[in-house]
Design goal:
Layout: E1 6-11, E2 14-19, H1 30-45, E3 51-56, H2 67-72, H3 80-96, E4 101-105, E5 108-110, H4 112-118, E6 122-126, E7 130-132, H5 146-154, H6 156-165, E8 168-169, H7 171-176, E9 182-184, H8 189-198, H9 205-218, H10 223-240, H11 243-252
Parallel strand pairs: 2-3, 3-4, 4-6, 5-7, 6-9
Antiparallel strand pairs: 1-2, 7-8
Length: about 260
């Protein structure tokens, strides 16, 4: 499929989607979001993919929603709900994708860009990057999930500080707050990413999918309900996939499993 607002590549069990509006700092236009939705759906169908990486072309990861689009629809606010629905559908697709998703952040990840980060499973960030939800700085409010996802990632007080003050975090601060996994100098970011990907390529895609799904579904459940969910999934996975048997056989034979 041809895309004009993103770039998609698949190599060595990894799919990479690059937001490709560098002149607009990869602002999330309706066209970009639709392409992103289509690309994520295609990755979900590709059984050879073990991980998805989201990056941004140019000098930033993503500066947020396309404010030119928003400025153009004040006379026709009927366009607003379809945009927000599409935005949230994209982010839910990332959360529900049956492989780990990794955001690689350089430059800015602000407002909608931060919301995109929050929809990914893991985040590698450049030390000099800036992350924040700056909606309040311009009399706006989030529409892509910051109010719902951010407290679970950083805690309620820190979430409220970011949401209400518009404060930006550096890469190391984002790690300290639990918003990112690792922070490295920009010139080392590809090496850090490769180290993480190398540990995923040999895993069972089916197993990764079960782990991610149950973790996502159970995070808001009471512990007893979450344990029941995990236990039922464990039994179903063993009953429906050959991978647990191959994994145990490989362990006994002191070799790497083949999935």
């Amino acid at each position: 499929m041809e895309y004009s607002n993103i770039k998609v590549a698949r190599e060595n069990a990894v799919a990479t989607i690059r937001l490709n509006r560098p002149d607009a700092m990869n602002a999330l236009s309706p066209e970009l979001l639709q392409e992103l939705s289509d690309a994520v759906a295609a990755v979900g169908q590709d059984q050879s993919v073990k991980a998805l990486v989201i990056r941004g072309e140019g000098r930033s990861f993503c500066a947020g929603a396309d404010l030119i689009f928003f400025d153009s629809i004040f006379g026709d606010l009927a366009q607003l709900k379809p945009y927000i629905d599409l935005l949230n559908r994209c982010f839910l697709q990332l959360e529900e994708l049956p492989v780990p998703t990794i955001a690689v952040v350089h430059g800015f990840a602000l407002a909608g860009g931060l919301e995109l980060v929050l929809a990914c499973d893991m985040v590698i960030v450049a030390e000099d990057a800036k992350l924040g939800d700056q909606h309040a700085n311009f009399g706006l409010m989030p529409g892509g999930g910051s109010t719902q996802r951010l407290p679970g990632r950083v805690g309620m007080q820190r979430a409220m500080e970011l949401l209400t003050t518009g404060r930006w975090l550096s890469g190391p601060e984002a790690v300290d707050w639990g918003l990112a996994l690792r922070s490295v100098p920009t010139e080392r970011i590809d090496d850090e990413l490769e180290g993480l990907l190398a540990s995923l390529r040999g895993k069972s895609r089916t197993g990764l999918g079960w782990i991610k799904s149950i973790t996502q579904r159970g995070k808001d459940l009471p512990l007893r309900d979450g344990l029941a969910l995990e236990g039922a999934a464990f039994v179903q996975y063993f009953a429906t996939s050959p991978h647990p048997q191959e994994g145990i056989r490989a362990f006994k034979e002191k070799r790497q499993p083949e999935f």
